[in-house]
Amino acid sequence: MNEFELIATLAKSLPANETVVVGAGDDCAVLDFALPDKLFLFKTDAVVQGIHFTSETPPEKIGRKALARCLSDIAAMAGTPAVALVTLGLPANFDPGFVRKIYDGLNALALKYNVAIAGGETTTNPGGLLLSIALLGTVARDKQVLRRGAKPGDAIFVTGELGGSLSGKHLDFEPRLAEAQWLAENFSIHAMIDLSDGLAGDLPHLLAAGGVGAELLKSAIPVSRAAKLPAQKSSSTKPPFAAALTDGEDFELLFTLPARDAVKLLDTWKKKFPKLKLSCIGKIVTGHGIILRDKTGSQKLNAHGYVHFS
Amino acid sequence: MNEFELIATLAKSLPANETVVVGAGDDCAVLDFALPDKLFLFKTDAVVQGIHFTSETPPEKIGRKALARCLSDIAAMAGTPAVALVTLGLPANFDPGFVRKIYDGLNALALKYNVAIAGGETTTNPGGLLLSIALLGTVARDKQVLRRGAKPGDAIFVTGELGGSLSGKHLDFEPRLAEAQWLAENFSIHAMIDLSDGLAGDLPHLLAAGGVGAELLKSAIPVSRAAKLPAQKSSSTKPPFAAALTDGEDFELLFTLPARDAVKLLDTWKKKFPKLKLSCIGKIVTGHGIILRDKTGSQKLNAHGYVHFS
User: Fold this and answer.
1) Inter-axis angle of helices B96-112 and A3-12, nearest 10
2) Does residue B44 sit within a domain?
3) Which candidate from B26, B45, B136 shows the least CB-CB separation from A121?
4) Is the pLDDT at A303 greater than 60, yes or no?
5) What is the pLDDT of residue A306?
6) How far apart are CA A104 and CA A74, in angstroms?
7) Could you tell me the CATH number of the domain that includes residue A233?
8) Which one of A130, A308, B160, B166 is separated from A200 by 20 to 30 angstroms, measured CA to CA?
9) What number is the average pLDDT over the span B146-155?
């Protein structure tokens, strides 16, 4: 049994109660505490030394990244973050100055988005630094956008450009909170997810949640400059388009809405967010799986993010 | 700079916002999301292999303990737990069956207290198992009981018996949720904390928060059978009374209320909770620090839990 199978098994038997609107399996849990106009969003996310950052990563960026990842999940549901708790697991011989700088990065991002840090705890973690954020946010009642809800005929959009995040963006990305809130207020967004495992890794989650498939237009997928650079330096690295599909930690928004609204969205987006690219990359279809189309024909994309060149 | 000094420094500069009623430094954060009748309680707590449990600990008890610790913090504020998220850090070669059993223990306790497990995440933690719980609860508005609030003349009470938790109770303790809620509904509880670091470790937190001191009556402090047993077996172990003062993980409630209510409390408690001991162990005084009185005189107890026999 691998990690994904284990999670799927565990998720089936979790206790629920009357407050849980959406439990395990979406970007955040959605909770109803009988506030007339709001639902709550609840999320935890951890970064671990050697996996999400290295011993070379500046501590301010570790703190920033840990919170930004959670903010991105709140964005994926069109929510507003409110209050976080910080769990810091420290190896035995930690440097207090290093920890202070982790908090400097974390606090600066929290202030930017009016997120309170209301405590948390430090504990010993013998294997290395672990920083886990628990984040509570809100969303206007019935304005939450889930992973499920994509319908055949929907247009599929993605913000920004994809791939190459490890060259720097993974430590500096801006969570798309304002963009997501604007989308939910002004359009009928059917489904949304933030891209943490790459387009080829996360689109399947959105499709599976909705019981639908997708057709993507290869030329429409925005490939970042950071995804193109390594291939220019060495032919042995991942080709740019594969990087755009499979590199993790883009933290862009992937969402669908009725195709009839696509042109209006592109027009108004350009005025509202002139600095951030928005791309229509394909459409939702009946069935399941992802078909990738280009001039030469079509290919199937599998859930692990690799293109089968058939 | 040690861990406590670091935390104190960090806590001073955490971002706040309009939702935070009580931030870092109490058993839970207290949050106001404009629900007319309720405030929210928010808590995270982690257990780590080699610190809070060993490789010999049955996995069901690891899961149970992780959640029970958080429930005890909700109890310390007289709150009601509602929804938890689970962060599970796993070493590379984890056993899915072991993880399944962790959740069995956790889920059973969650069901008992009507706590929903609304998701969370698994991540790799190279140094060993880490299980962190983020818990959201509620408390009737203006019924939350904080660490601060103890007043000179208050009687000091403790539930249960103290010491020797490591011989088993630390894995099986019952969070005092019903007791704390009943106390807050029926009495004017001035201050409360749950005992995780021992009476001598946690009473100073309550005293410092209130700017007061305490006088304890040595003979009134309830010493558990588990604290007495090791000393019967070997004279080299911690004496029972020292164990009752300094052993951690009792997870009993320590609280103060006006002395005039002490007798009424003891009377009604016996009828309401006949199986759980309640002891009046001393009184709050002006000044600071803890004086321990017995037939032979008085001693000073320091914040690290050691008695100075002067």
Assistant:
1) 20
2) yes
3) B45
4) no
5) 54
6) 22
7) 3.90.650.10
8) A130
9) 98
